[in-house]
Amino acid sequence: MSELTLSYAQHLRDLVKQAGRVDRECKVFGSSKHRYCLNPVLSDEIVSKYEEKNHIKLPSEYKFFITQVGNGGAGPDYGIYPLVVNNPCRCDMKPPFISSKLTKDEWKEKLRPLEDEDCPDDEFDRMEEELSSGVYALGTKGCTFENITVSSGEDENRVFYINFDWDEDAMPYDTEMNFLTWYEHFFEEIINGNDVSGYGYRIIGSQQELISQFEESQDHTRRSKLLNSFFRFRTVSQETLLFFRNLSEEEFPTYKLALLLRYDVKEGVALFDRFLDEKPLAAIEESADVPKDQLPQFFDRMRDLLYTIENGSENISRYSSAHSLLMQRMSECPQMRAADIAQFLKKDGITERDLQDAFYYMGEAVDKIKELDTFIDAMENGPYWAAHSALQAVSDVCSAKLQEVLPKLWERYKEDYCMAANLKVAFRTNHLVVPQEKNGRQPKYILHD
User: Fold this and answer.
1) CB-hemisphere CA count at 13 Å for 288?
2) 57, 151 in Cβ contact below 8 A?
3) For a pLDDT cut of 90, what percent of the chain falls above it?
4) CA contacts within 13 A on the Cβ side of 306
5) Is pTM beyond 0.70 here?
């Protein structure tokens, strides 16, 4: 970042315009919201009066931005929030809890009281205030995800990504960039034709710079982040490809596979083929990157892994287990049949989540009607979410067997909104009259673990 001068402010405005010319169709996430436009700046006097009135001091780089570049508008994700002087202040001068020194253990310990369902509202509000003290919201990624900057102290202007849903497993992410550097690099990445979908999570630098930093570092976490940063590039050089090929398969198997699948498909598919035998978890984790037209040749081996892999219900990504990823890839192959998933249901130790996914993917099979008895058994005897998934999977099937079982299921689940809604669809498909709730009562939302 340069000094906070008028020429630097003009440089930032020029970057915004240039990025807008590169991304004319606003394909970058969030850009259709701001369309690479900046709002008119505020005067120093107005901002100073706002600070005096609210007894606060805005982060210095944000203050420069709204007085010299634009009062909000174009920026990462959905853009930068403007300062609305008549609205309540979104900042305080308390010491920030969020900082570059915050540890995972400290974050989890701080959030522990919020996990208590009986936490009083006033206590919850007090804790929220403590957690968000000393930071200023810059913009949103959507839903409860925000881009924030620290208002004061040694981390002033530093940008973090946070989920205000207060997830103990998702502590604030430190971009390691101050606001204006973060802002400037974003538009430079667009101008350079790089992928900004993971912006802030990846290290900015040329391919050679990333390779050099990787070779100089001994820290596994840092090296992993450097490898992840190569995904910014649309194409890579032969030198970079050689670097990928030479990556350690013991230390970085998933990154080696993912990078080769992205930038050298032929070699990546060959490595996937080998990893299915030698490092199946790495192969499964990166299987989504295998070209769809290449997957069918691996169908039989993926099916065998589904039946035999140990601890397959454990997550290998944040949201998916090895079982679930295997079934997803199998469902993308034209040879998959419902019996392929039905056989998996006999495996010991399957979690309810995997059962739920199994019935979903079995419902995608072209011959799912052949396993109708399996679906019905799950609806009648399976755990709740497995029964729910099985019902959804066959809600478009008309069968005498379903005509017999659906009324019984209605009596069991008529007070449950989720089940009742899907049962009504199945009733109509099977030419059955949807039962009327007594006294016009509507089904309830019922929470299920």
Assistant:
1) 7
2) yes
3) 82
4) 28
5) yes
pLDDT tens readout for residues 323-365: 999 999 999 999 999 999 999 999 998 999 999 999 999 999 9
Residue ranges with strand state E in 234-314: none
Instruction: Please check whether residue 91 is in contact with residue 51, taking contact to mean a CB–CB distance below 8 angstroms.
Output: no
Least confidently predicted of 102-111, 113-122, 217-226, 367-376: 113-122
Which two tokens mark 201?
């999570």
- Find, among 161, 139, 163, the residue nearest to 78 by Cα: 139
End-to-end CA distance of the chain: 48
- Which residues have a Cβ under 8 Å from the Cβ of 227 and sit 6 or more positions away? 214, 247, 252, 255, 259
Distance, CA of 377 to chain centre? 34
- Can you name the residues that pair with 315 across neighbouring β-strands? 321
Q: 398, 387, 389: which is closest to 432 by C-alpha?
A: 398
pLDDT at 441 over 60: no
Region 164-191: mean pLDDT is: 95
The order of strands in the sheet holding 145-150 is 135-142, 145-150, 158-163, 173-178
* Contact criterion met (CB below 8 Å) for 375 and 393: yes
Place of tokens 């089940």: 419
Which pLDDT does position 445 carry in this prediction? 46
Would the pLDDT of 222 be above 70? yes
Least Cα distance to 65 among 86, 90, 40, 88 occurs for: 40
| 311-318, Cβ contacts within 8 angstroms, sequence gap of 24 or more | 312/347, 312/354, 313/349, 313/350, 313/351, 313/353, 313/354, 316/281, 316/284, 316/285, 317/285
**Considering Cα of 220, then 223, then 229, then 233, what sign does the dihedral take?**
negative
- Beta-carbon contacts of 369 under 8 Å, excluding residues fewer than 6 positions away, are 397, 399
Is the pLDDT score of 442 beyond 60? no
